[in-house]
């Protein structure tokens, strides 16, 4: 996926924003599965980081389970998402350091925008991030 623009179904975007809002003090995280290159399912995963207010770590067991569900449903990994409760929606130094799926989109939701939630997408490879423009798709 070397696109510079990606459409996200409004239903998935709303789900991600809701998850971030109901956990405003901790980073929420999870996976997005896709069919035919289009985001289709959201898999929330427990954040097991020692400091979940400042970083995320996907629970290994839940991540394996979500990947198995994706395979069983004919989906591929599309994105890894997490929230930043008090930081902008840009990859932190830790996000860049720990990113290990260069084929996946990294979606970051920020709650630090004065009442307006912000979601941005990035491709991260070799500790370097390239922003991918996002738009909402009503059809899916």
Going across the major beta sheet, what is the strand order? Answer: 1-7-6-5-4-2-3
Query: Alpha-carbon distance between the termini?
Result: 19 Å
* CATH architectural grouping: 3-Layer(aba) Sandwich
What is the name of the CATH topology?
Cytidine Deaminase, domain 2
What's the alpha carbon Rg, rounded to whole Å? 14 Å
Bin the strand percentage: 35-45%
For the record, the count of structural domains works out to 1
Q: What share of the residues lie within helices?
A: 10-25%
Query: Number of DSSP strands?
Result: 7
Task: Report the sheet with the most strands, covering strand number, pairing sense and barrel closure.
Answer: 7 strands, mixed
Shape: globular
Instruction: Report the average pLDDT across residues.
Output: 92
What's the CATH superfamily, by name?
Answer: Cytidine Deaminase, domain 2
Task: Describe this entry's structure for a reader.
Strand 2 (29-35) and strand 3 form a beta hairpin. The longest helix has 13 residues, at 10-22. The mean pLDDT is 92. Strands 1-7-6-5-4-2-3 form a seven-stranded mixed β-sheet, with helices on both faces. It starts with a strand and ends with a strand. It has a single domain (5-131), classed as Cytidine Deaminase, domain 2. It is an alpha/beta fold. 31% of the residues are buried. The chain contains three helices and seven strands. Helix content is 23%, strand content 38%.
